[in-house]
Amino acid sequence: MAGIRIQDICSILEEWAPKELAFPEDSVGLVLGSTDWDTNNAIVCLTITDQIVKDAIQKKVKLIISHHPLIFQPLRKIVHTNPHQKRIAQLITNEIACYTCHTNLDVAEKGVNYILAKKLDLSNISGLLPIEHIRLYKLVTFVPKNHLEKVRNAVCGCGAGIIGEYAYCSFSTSGIGTFLPSDKAKPFLGKIGKINEEKEERFEVIVPSEILGNVIEALLDAHPYEEVAYDVYPLQNKSRKISLGAKGVLDKSISLEEFSNIVKEKLNLSSIKIVGNLNKKVKNIAVLGGSGGGEIINIPDNIDVLVTGDVKYHQALEAEERGLAVIDAGHFGTEYPIVEGIANYLTQKLPLLEIIIPAEKEPFLYK
């Protein structure tokens, strides 16, 4: 039976977490192998370790999808005396492709932090902190009125025009466009060699930076003109769908101690670290999977407790001084739920693809 092209799997993952969302220094997408390969199965994991590679070889898996990058820093050599480089060599030798969805999935809508918030039974989940490198643009074009609907459907069908919970948001105004076609032009309207005046609609719509190229391509395909006039303006608005971290609320106020027990139970952890008064009542919760201690200074004042990992000593003191409770559930603990999230997403989109979730564990021992 023919397998599924790795290119198709990559495209489906990037519908959820476009590579353009990744932080500039990150390494995401297909980092090893070829998009032309086929596969009937895939391993989904948090980190590609020696054991993950052994499992992939033993089970004849042709694709590993990980949250943490296989290759983060540039490699100058690959030698077997280095464990990390040896893993890469084994993957190349066995023709196992590797795909990473890291910070792009951290900030994507319904990504790492949304799934963590759902795991903790939060409701009214929304973005926590804006992302500086993700911009919104205003796309403006000019189109004959009887082609306006086709153009609007094309660009909004690609994801333009979303404001909060509203889709297909746009604005149009009527005006007069002028143009003088040369003798080599093939105008859709008007006459060659004459200054033409035509009734047109000025159509404008908001577009997130990560899909701007696709939206412009859709505009050009749908527009009837030989030469399409369009403008792209950068905006100061921040996307509310794309964010670092998430926030939500509990059904009722409970003590920090009660909530910390919920975190341990839901994330299957034997121990956590807590900053704050255990008797403090908490309801407004923020989550930031992985390493979120550096963002403590930016957490809004209305947040009662932050659930994150890798909190440093002075970051904990800063939270204490602010009156912000913090639960450090570890890097592994706060990110591991995304493994199941990726697996569920792929199973829904590609039911014929066998998804394998190997055992992974927290590297630290607590005594």
Could you explain the architecture of this structure?
It is a single chain. With 367 residues, the protein is of the alpha/beta class. The protein folds into 3 domains: 4-105, NIF3 (NGG1p interacting factor 3)-like (Udp-n-acetylmuramoylalanyl-d-glutamate--2,6- Diaminopimelate Ligase, Chain: A, domain 1), CATH 3.40.1390.30; 109-131 and 243-331, Udp-n-acetylmuramoylalanyl-d-glutamate--2,6- Diaminopimelate Ligase, Chain: A, domain 1 (3-Layer(aba) Sandwich); 136-234, Alpha-Beta Plaits. The chain is built from 11 helices and 17 strands. It has helices spanning 6-16, 50-58, 83-93, 103-107, 112-119, 148-157, 212-222, 256-266, 313-322, 331-335, 337-349; strands at 4-5, 29-32, 38-39, 41-45, 63-66, 97-100, 123-129, 136-143, 171-179, 196-208, 230-234, 244-255, 273-275, 281-287, 305-308, 325-328, 354-356. It has a 6-stranded mixed β-sheet, with helices on both faces. Helix 9 links the parallel strand 15 and strand 16 (325-328). The longest helix is centred in the last third of the chain and has 13 residues, at 337-349. The mean pLDDT is 94.
